Every structure is written in C-alpha cells, then in structure tokens.
C-alpha cells in the first residue's frame, strides 16, 4: 500500500523560502504514469492546488504561485519537493502532497493518495 | 473567491439523499474532468469521484457524480451520520492553466 509523508521545517519567517519534501513509500515514485502534486489548505479554509510534477520532471504550477514555486522530483530517493519563495502570512497553510492516479483522465484534479499534511506557519 | 461555486452547506436526514452542486464555466467544468472529495475535519481529503462519474476502488455506489454543461453534481444516497464532512469539487481550468477547487460544502446529516 503506497503511502506519502510530508516533512518540513514548521515555522518560516516572512520573505524566506518554504521547503517541503514528500517521501513515497510502499511503491515506486517512477511506477506507472504517476503524477505527484502539492495542495494546500489555509486554516479553516478550502483547498488550493499548488502544483503537479510528472516522474519525468514535467511540471504544472498554479497560475497565482508560478513566479515563486519550484517543484522537483528525485526518483533515486523516492521523493518530490516543493520550494515556495518570498513567503508571507498568506502562505500559512496545511500543505498536502498527493498522488494523481494513472487511471484518471487529464486534464483533471484527481488525487487518490494523500499524505497527512504538514502545517507551515509563516510568522516573524 | 473560488472559480467553482458550491453551496456553503446542505443538510438532510439519515437515509435520505442529497445533491451537492458545483458550478463553473466553459473553460473549466465545461472542458475538463471533475473530481469530488470528502474531507472530515482534521484529516486529508478522500477521492470519491474522478472523471466526472467514476468511483475509485472501495468507494460505495451510494456516491455518484454527474456533469452537464458547466455544472457538476455529487449525489449521496442512504445518508449516514458518518457522511458529515466537507465536500469539494475540483477540475482543471484551461484558460487559467491551473487546477481549481470549489469553496467546499459542509454536509450535515440531521
């Protein structure tokens, strides 16, 4: 059973860079035709898609965050990562990593396996 | 302000059915596949429906999805108290070139 686990720094200061890693276990990050995504949820609010990466390294970024984010994949380590630069309080959220299944049809927002989420707080 | 519009809340009695709507436009729902999620507070979202009307393995047939034009609907029959949660629709917006979610609907089973 594939599982995802986010790891990150916790609190981040304004203007700094937020870095999160998602470790994939119980299966290969390179297997099938998986895409891997980041979705965030500010406290008490709804879901916001951040970006998605294919195992090949092809990326798709949120239009509103595109200038500040980089998503990368390290197939040798079985993990993918998110960097969000120049953070502000508005970036405070629970950040989820998730897998887009190979059986769904693009373009879509289908994610079938999720991590438990990593809370990132931006505060001075 | 979400690109996709969902009612903030819906309610129904146990055993009844409920429909949750998701309204968008030609650039998103009208031209992309819709997914639906259930999120119990404090837990990660769970995929209920993908490709407008398909259920992942393990999702009971009490849950159904449909799409017509620029709107989509999640149907839940045989409501149980355990169905109380927030429900989100999601799809791709071809004009914005970005993934979008609805604002979420809180389901209360009275």
Overview of the molecule:
The complex is a heterodimer of chains A (124) and B (110). Chain A is globular. In chain A, strands 2, 4, 5, 6, 9, 10 and 11 form a 7-stranded mixed β-sheet that branches. Chain A has a 4-stranded antiparallel β-sheet with strand order 1-3-8-7, with no helix packed on it. The mean pLDDT of chain A is 93. Helix content of chain A is 0%, strand content 48%. Chain A has 124 residues and is mostly beta strands. In chain A, β7 and β8 form a beta hairpin. Chain A has strands spanning 3-7, 11-12, 18-25, 35-41, 48-54, 59-61, 69-74, 79-84, 93-100, 113-114, 118-122. Chain B has 110 residues and is an all-beta fold. Helices cover 0% and strands 45% of the residues of chain B. Chain B is built from no helices and 9 strands. In chain B, strands 1, 3, 4, 7, 8 and 9 form a 6-stranded mixed β-sheet that branches. In chain B, a hairpin with a 6-residue loop joins β3 (35-39) and β4 (46-49). Chain B is globular, with a radius of gyration of 13 Å. The N and C termini of chain B lie far apart (29 Å). Chain A binds chain B through residues 39, 46-49, 52, 60-64, 96, 98, 101, 103-112, 114-117, and chain B through 2, 32-35, 37, 39, 44-47, 50-51, 54, 56, 88, 90-92, 94, 96-104.
The SSE order of chain B reads EEEEEEEEE
Strand content of chain B: 35-45%
Overall mean pLDDT score of chain A? 93
Largest sheet of chain A: 7 strands, mixed
Quantity of strands of chain A, as a count: 11
Question: Structural class of the secondary structure composition of chain B?
Answer: mainly beta
Low-confidence stretches of chain B: none
The poorly predicted ranges of chain A are none
Number of helices of chain A: 0
So what's the overall shape of chain B? Answer: globular
The proportion of residues forming helix of chain A, as a percent range, comes to under 10%
Report how far apart the termini of chain B are: 29 Å
**H/I helix tally of chain B:** 0
| Greatest interface | A-B, 28 and 29 residues
Main β-sheet description of chain B: 6 strands, mixed
Q: Proportion of β residues of chain A?
A: over 45%
Q: For the CA atoms, what is the radius of gyration of chain B?
A: 13 Å
Helix content estimate of chain B: under 10%
Mean pLDDT of chain B: 96
Oligomer: heterodimer
How would the global form of chain A be characterised? Answer: globular
């Amino acid at each position: 059973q594939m599982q995802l686990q986010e790891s990150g720094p916790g609190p981040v200061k304004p203007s700094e860079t937020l870095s999160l890693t998602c470790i994939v276990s119980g299966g290969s990050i390179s297997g099938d035709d998986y895409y891997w995504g980041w979705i965030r949820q500010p406290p008490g609010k709804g879901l916001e898609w951040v970006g998605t990466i294919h195992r090949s390294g092809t990326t798709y970024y949120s239009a509103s965050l595109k200038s500040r984010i980089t998503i990368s994949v390290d197939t040798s380590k079985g993990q993918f990562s998110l960097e969000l630069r120049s953070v502000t309080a508005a970036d405070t959220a629970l950040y989820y990593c998730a897998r887009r299944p190979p059986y769904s049809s693009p373009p879509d927002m289908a994610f079938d396996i999720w991590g438990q989420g990593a809370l990132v707080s931006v505060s001075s | 302000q979400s690109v996709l519009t969902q009612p903030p809340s819906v309610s129904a009695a146990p055993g009844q059915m409920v429909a949750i709507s998701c309204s968008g436009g030609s650039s998103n729902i009208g031209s992309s596949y819709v997914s639906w999620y259930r999120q119990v507070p404090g837990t990660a979202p769970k995929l209920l429906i993908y490709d407008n009307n398909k259920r992942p393995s393990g999702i009971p047939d009490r849950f159904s999805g449909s799409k017509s034009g620029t709107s989509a609907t999640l149907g839940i029959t045989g409501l149980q108290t355990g169905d109380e949660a927030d429900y989100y629709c999601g799809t791709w917006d071809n004009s914005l070139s970005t993934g979008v979610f609805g604002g979420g609907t809180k389901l209360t089973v009275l």
